[in-house]
């Protein structure tokens, strides 16, 4: 960001640093104001409750001792003449090998086949030895998952017997813990907030403990809704530790700060008359998106018509966090890497110079993914990694995607929420990255076509999990929140495209303004009279911003 004129106020260098990111945003500091918010005495507290009855949470066993496998149902399926078990009927294993045991009492049934599913589909027929039994060692099963196998016998006349099935759960890790909703990095003293956390495992969970600073309480397996009391100023660290019946444990934590001070800032932004916008679409290519992917191309067929008249370029990546790879001749794009545009040899994005109908067809075909990527959807991380890639000088054409003077927008289409808790999965850390990398000069908006939080009908049909974090970053940037369960995305995509077009009316601030303080906008030294609304970090003006130098005075929590 350019700091012009250097008035009498001192210059404040707002710096942040995490393990993988450091950066600074320049602003004019006009001094600190004490006692923002309502002073709170004592220690902060929290309460834990399950979700509404329509979303059942699993109770944690009261016993503090691990359950024995013998207390759990045997997963094997038996018949008097034919037998099939996995690891002697154990429901769980931690090992790197499982044993499939089969046998029959009927000497005429001399052949069997094993299928890696529960319906005896596939597999190769193999002959039994004179003992009429066999043991097969398997090492290429799914780790930390339920593994299903089936066996069928046939006699010398090729008459098949019934299909036998059995399953075993492999589990050598602690439970998965995901914070889907959590406080902002900085809260105002006296404010209330909420945490929603999912605790899941392939095995039953024995114990879950939630802790905030010095207070610890029992939590639940499944969904936890944690209400925070009005908090006094200070540093807060909230953690969840969960242990399964095998004794495997896992912990995840989040942190935030409660303050009672404000800082007054002036942000300077230079607006040019170039109407440029760079767009990244992050498409969920996981298995749970099968329904939505069937007609994805048709669902977004109207997007470019709404962007007509802008100087746009649009690229596509996936929610897959894994590195781009090729397996069995299929290429899987991930880690923020761009998917080549379908039908456009060598192109990694479409742009407004292309014939609109050709560009729309290429975009639609690119979005409709033929592969099945990772089930660990991470659209925020994908955007973060793409920005890192695109702003690192290299010979890759990705590094030429972002243009000077162009605004930036992201659209995610996914039926699940961000599935990891690192800082690169955090909405606010992504916004900090954008502010740092582009010196506060890009207006930015995030748009989400997701399983909207609270839409139980969508969640129980084609939506896998509520997109709490995608909703959060959408609200922070004044974006559009749509439903992934709609049969046709035309209306939603039109709304997204309209808001992307409207970025030429927006200024994105470096922090979320405090509600008790006025926001003043000066253009070329004169008060700017065009009215605006505030949505998250975005000032949305009633008309397109005229070229010039803008100074915005506002207050944020310190």
Overview of the structural elements:
It is built from nine helices and 35 strands. The protein has 558 residues and is mainly β. Strand 31 (520-523) and strand 32 (526-527) form a beta hairpin. The strands form eight sheets. A six-stranded antiparallel beta sheet has the order 1-2-21-35-31-32. The model is unreliable at 1-26 and 56-76 (pLDDT under 50).
Condensed summary:
With 558 residues, this protein is mainly beta. Helices cover 13% and strands 37% of the residues. Mean pLDDT is 85; it is low at 1-26 and 56-76.
Topology, element by element:
Layout: E1 11-18, E2 21-33, E3 46-49, E4 77-78, E5 82-86, E6 92-93, E7 98-104, E8 111-115, E9 126-127, E10 133-138, E11 146-154, E12 164-170, E13 176-181, E14 186-188, E15 193-200, E16 205-212, E17 215-218, E18 222-228, E19 234-244, E20 249-259, E21 262-271, E22 276-283, H1 290-293, H2 296-299, H3 303-307, E23 311-318, E24 325-327, E25 330-332, E26 349-351, H4 356-367, H5 379-390, E27 407-413, H6 427-437, E28 444-450, H7 456-459, H8 468-476, E29 481-483, H9 490-501, E30 506-508, E31 520-523, E32 526-527, E33 532-535, E34 538-541, E35 548-557
Parallel strand pairs: 6-12, 14-20, 22-23, 22-27, 27-28, 28-29
Antiparallel strand pairs: 1-2, 2-21, 3-18, 4-5, 5-7, 7-10, 8-9, 8-11, 11-12, 13-15, 15-18, 16-17, 16-19, 19-20, 21-35, 23-26, 24-25, 30-34, 31-32, 31-35, 33-34
Helix pairs in contact: 5-6
């Amino acid at each position: 960001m350019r700091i012009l004129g250097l008035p009498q106020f001192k210059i404040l260098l707002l710096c942040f640093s995490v393990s993988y990111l450091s950066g600074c945003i320049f602003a004019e500091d006009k001094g600190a104001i004490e006692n923002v918010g309502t002073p709170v005495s004592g220690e902060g507290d929290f309460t834990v409750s399950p979700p509404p009855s329509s979303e059942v949470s699993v109770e944690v066993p009261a016993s503090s001792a691990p359950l024995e496998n013998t207390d759990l149902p045997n997963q094997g399926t038996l018949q008097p003449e034919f037998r099939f078990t996995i690891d002697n009927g154990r429901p769980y294993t931690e090992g790197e090998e499982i044993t499939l045991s089969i046998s029959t009492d009927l000497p005429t049934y001399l052949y069997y086949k094993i299928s890696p599913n529960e319906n005896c589909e596939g597999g190769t027929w193999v002959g039994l030895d004179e003992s009429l039994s066999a043991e097969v060692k398997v090492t290429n099963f799914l780790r930390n998952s339920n593994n299903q196998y089936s066996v069928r016998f046939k006699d010398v006349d090729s008459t098949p017997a019934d299909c036998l099935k059995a399953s075993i759960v492999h589990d050598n890790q602690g439970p998965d813990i995901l914070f889907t909703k959590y406080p902002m990095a900085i809260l105002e003293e006296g404010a209330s907030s909420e945490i929603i956390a999912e605790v899941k495992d392939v095995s039953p969970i024995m114990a879950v403990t939630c802790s905030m600073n010095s207070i610890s309480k029992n939590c639940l397996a499944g969904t936890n809704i944690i209400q925070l009391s009005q908090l006094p100023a200070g540093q807060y660290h909230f953690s969840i530790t969960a242990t399964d019946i095998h004794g495997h444990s896992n912990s995840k934590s989040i942190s935030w700060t409660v303050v009672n001070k404000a800082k007054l800032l002036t942000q300077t932004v230079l607006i040019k008359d170039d109407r440029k916008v760079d767009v990244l679409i992050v498409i969920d290519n996981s298995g749970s998106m099968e329904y939505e992917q069937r007609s994805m191309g048709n669902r977004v067929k109207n997007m470019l018509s709404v962007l007509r008249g802008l100087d746009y370029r649009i690229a596509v990546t996936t929610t897959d966090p894994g590195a781009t790879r090729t397996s069995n001749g299929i290429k899987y794009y991930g880690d923020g890497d761009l998917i080549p545009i379908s039908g456009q040899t060598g192109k990694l994005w479409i742009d407004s110079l292309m014939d609109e109908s050709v560009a729309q067809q290429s975009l639609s075909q690119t979005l409709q993914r033929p592969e099945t990527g990772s089930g660990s959807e991470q659209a925020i991380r994908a955007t973060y990694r793409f920005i890192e890639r695109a702003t690192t000088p290299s010979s890759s054409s990705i590094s030429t995607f972002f243009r000077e003077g162009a605004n930036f927008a992201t659209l995610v289409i996914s039926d699940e929420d961000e599935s990891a808790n690192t800082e690169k999965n955090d909405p606010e850390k992504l916004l900090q990255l954008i502010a740092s990398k582009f010196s506060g000069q890009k207006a930015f908006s995030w748009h989400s076509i997701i399983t909207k939080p609270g839409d139980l009908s969508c969640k129980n049909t084609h939506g896998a999990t509520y997109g709490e974090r995608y909703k959060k970053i959408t609200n922070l940037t004044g974006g559009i929140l749509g439903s992934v369960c709609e049969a046709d995305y035309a209306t939603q995509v039109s709304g997204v495209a309209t808001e992307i077009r409207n970025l030429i009316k927006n200024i994105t601030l470096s922090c979320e303004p405090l509600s008790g303080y006025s926001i003043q906008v000066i253009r070329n030294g004169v008060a700017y009279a065009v009215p605006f609304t505030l949505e998250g970090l975005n000032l949305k003006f009633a008309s397109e911003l005229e070229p010039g130098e803008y100074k915005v005075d506002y207050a944020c929590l310190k």
